[in-house]
């Protein structure tokens, strides 16, 4: 039995998404930087495709993630990747899946990384809540690569959606 055209199309989309996210993950892990040539073209293509099909809700994530970048909660590449992913799937279902999936993956990593000083994450959260958002230099020095985590969650969603 051969797969339908939609299934075949979905496999190609999932493969392309995996290659794109995998490439950015490798860059993020190796250098803690991701070039604009890896982030901006896919973001532009996704937005153009969505807008050409009348999906204006794809624009909603842009100011949100841009603002999170401007106040130093996200790095620039993180913001652009999240803009692209949330523009690709501009739905509450994806948002919920992404948030839950990210917490499920990130929480054990954070606990392991801070196992000797569990008060550190709480101290950082409290400082953030009091208005002590991290400076750009602090993010560069102490920020952890997050794109691989985004990749795992997005690829899982893509496989569920297109697989």
Layout: helices, strands, pairs:
Elements: H1 5-31, H2 36-52, H3 61-70, H4 76-88, H5 92-113, H6 119-129, H7 136-142, H8 147-162
Radius of gyration, in Å, reads 17 Å
Q: Looking at the chains present, what oligomeric state does this protein adopt?
A: single chain
Described by strand count, sense and barrel closure, the largest sheet is: none
What structural class do you assign from the helix and strand content? mainly alpha
Taking pLDDT < 50 over at least 5 consecutive residues as the criterion, the unreliable ranges are none
Principal-axes geometry comes out as globular
Mean pLDDT: 82
If helices are DSSP runs of H or I spanning 4 or more residues, what is the number of helices?
A: 8
Strand fraction band? Answer: under 5%
Tally of discrete structural domains: 1
| Cα-to-Cα separation, first versus last residue | 16 Å
According to DSSP, the number of beta strands is: 0
Summarize the amount of helix as a percent range: over 70%
The string of secondary-structure elements, in order, is HHHHHHHH
Question: What labels describe this entry?
Answer:
8 helices, mainly alpha, 75% helix, 163 residues
